[in-house]
Amino acid sequence: MDSRRSSSSFFDREKHVVFLQMMNQLLPSDYQGQEINRLTLAYFAISGLHILGALDENHQMNIWVAAGQFFGFHGSRSSQFPRDDKGVLIHNGSHLASTYCALAILKIVGYNFSCINSKSILTSMRNLQQPDGSFMPTHVGAETDLRFVFCAAAICSMLENWSGMDKEKAKEYILNCQSYDGGFGLIPGSESHGVYWVLPSSVRERQAADGGFQGRANKASDTCYAFWVLRILGGYKLIDKKALHGFLLTCQSQYGGFSKFPGQLPDLYHSYYGFSAFSMLEEPGLIPICVELGIADIAAIGH
Fold it and tell me: Which helix (H) or strand (E) holds 69?
């Protein structure tokens, strides 16, 4: 057995709590290239601790996240962008994914949403929606795909205001991403992917012999797909939960956290979705997760 893999046959909550607390205090040097995604990394740590039932009150987190609003929220206040072809300095603007993560964190820590300039968020976001119903994540131009449609919908849901998007256009775009096999691709005409699966029968087909889930056909099982496909349209009752539980434990690190594949070092992304999967598998002591918003249920209902 690889020395980096946990030999535990159970979900080691205490080690996971220590892992996330460490990550929340000081990220390893390998994350330096992710500075622009600092807010997303904070979301994985804060929401993960919340699911584990180990989140302490942190008023400094409120202040740090809320200070990042510029129409929406940007990923890091320290990120610098190069000048454009005309020598004009590019502003560190807001991003849909960062805005989703910021609102999720603020929801989790009980921040008063009346203190947020929701009108500017929704107005800015409405201008990011494209004629085909998709969304760009920033106002300086970028790819458009289903990830940002989800972010936009989650933002509207958390703000309890759907004026930030044309829902009918968004639905039209989503349906255009549906593939021949019933799943959904990232963009229209692309291969269906585990993150976007819709049919329970298709979900069942993605569970591999090792108990884990594949994102696409003939791909290796990956920790994060246990979350993405676990409860889509009732697919939960069709899967082999015992086999999935066993696969996830092979990805549990002796240091706490989860890795993408068995035997690798843990990272924040796969750790968070590992915790989410165990929450949906009803692991004792974990807070149930609201799969629609990606945060714990008690946060989603405002408690």
Answer: strand 69-70
Provide the 10 A C-beta neighbour count for residue 81: 12
Residue carrying structure tokens 């020395």: 3
User: Do residues 115 and 107 lie in contact, with contact meaning Cβ atoms separated by under 8 Å?
Assistant: no
The residues, any chain, with a CB within 8 Å of residue 23's CB and separated by 6 or more, are 41, 44, 45, 257, 268
- Please, is 80 exposed, middle or buried when counting C-beta atoms within 10 Å of its C-beta (0-12, 13-18, 19+)? exposed
Which of 253, 254, 256, 250 minimizes the C-alpha distance to 45?
A: 256
Residue 50 has pLDDT above 90, yes or no: yes
Which string of DSSP letters, residue by residue, matches 210-261? TS-B-SSTT----TTHHHHTTTGGGGGGGS-HHHHHHHHHHTBBTTSSB-SS
> What pLDDT, in 10s, does the model give residues 179-211?
887 778 889 998 876 554 444 445 555 666 676
Q: Which CATH number fits domain 1-9+177-303: 3.40.50.2300, 3.90.228.20, 3.30.2420.10, 1.50.10.20?
A: 1.50.10.20
Cα dist from 154 to 43, 160, 166, 191, 203, whole Å: 14, 10, 14, 24, 23
Return d(Cα 90, Cα 80) in angstroms, integer.
8
254-284: burial string, b at 16+ Cβ within 10 Å, e else = bebbbbbebebebbbbbbbbbbbbbbbbebe
* Residues 213-239: tens digit of each pLDDT: 766 666 667 677 677 666 665 666 777
The model scores a pTM over 0.90 = no
Q: What percent of the chain has pLDDT over 70?
A: 78
Return d(Cα 138, Cα 182) in angstroms, integer: 30
